[in-house]
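Z., the sequence and structure:
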Amino acid sequence: MVAEATEPEGLLPGASATVQTVRGPVDADQLGIILPHEHVFINLLREYRSDGLLDDADLMARELGRFAAVGGRTVVDCTTRELGRSPARLVAISSQTGIHIVMGCGHYRDPYIDAHAVDRRDVDQLAAAIVAEVMHGVDDSGIRPGVIGEVGCNGPHISAVEERTLRAAARAQRTTGLTLTTHAARWPVGLAQLDLFEAERVPPDRVVIGHCDMVPDPAYHLALARRGAFVQFDTINSQVEYEIERRARGVLALAEAGFLGQILLSQDVCLTSDLSAAGAGGYAFVVSTFLPRLRAAGLSEAECHQLVADNPRRALTGRGR
C-alpha cells in the first residue's frame, strides 16, 4: 500500500476545515453555493466530434459569470489529465471571475485511459503519482488538486484497466484524505465502484457516485444512499421537460426517504451545447431553474440551500452534518 504521507500546508488527512482550490486552500465556510461536478476546459472530441471541446477562455469566463450572477461561488472541475486538464488556465479564469475552482486528478475511464502506460506501473505506483500531484502540484506548476476524480467506468462493469486505476484512486484517497468522485453513467455501476472502494478501506461518506440521474432507477439511488455514499444528480442540464421532472422526482424520492443530506446537484457542463451561449442552461441552470422546481414541489428554502451549499461542502471536507 502507499505509505501515509506527511501532509503539506493546507492538506489535512480525513475531514478538513479547508478545501484546496487552484489558487490555494480556502476555508470551507467561504465556498458558498457549490457545483460539485463540472468542467471548464475539456477535450471530448474523440466522442463528440462537433461538440466536445471547451477551450475558449473568454467564453468560459462569461459562462462562469452567469453562475456568479445567481449567487454561485465554487465549481469542482472534474477534468483529468486525459481530458485536457489545464491547471494554469484554471488559475487564470478563477482569478478573473472570482469563482473558486477545485481541480480533479486521477485517471478518467476507458477508452481515455492509456492502458499501455498503466500496465507499466503497479497500483501503488499509480497511487503514488496521484498523491504527488495532491501534495506538490501538477508537474512543475505547484497547482494542487482538491478532489480525486472524476474516475470511473465506461460501461456496466469495471474493466481490468479501470479496476487498477480505481484502486489507485482509492489508495490515494486513503493517503491524502481527499474525496473520491466518480463517473458511473447509464448503468448502476456505482454499486460495484463502492464495493471496490470499501475493499480498499475508503469510507463511503468520502465517495461521490456520479451521474446517478442517468440511471432512472430509484432503487439504485436508495441503495447507494443506504451504504453511505453521496448520490450525485449531476446532468441536470436538459431543456426537455420530462428530463427535468424525472430528475426532480429522483431528488424528492431520496429526500422523502430521509437521505436529503446525501444528495448533490450539478450540471456536468462538458459540451458546447451545454453552454448558455448555445441556448442551454450553462452553469446557472441548477440554481436558476431546478431549485425553483424543487421549492414548488415542497422543499423549503433551507433544504434547497442544503442541497447546493451544505451537502457539497460536507462532501468535499468530510465535516459537518
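The two ends are 31 Å apart (CA to CA). The chain has one domain: 18-317.

Let me know what you think.
H.
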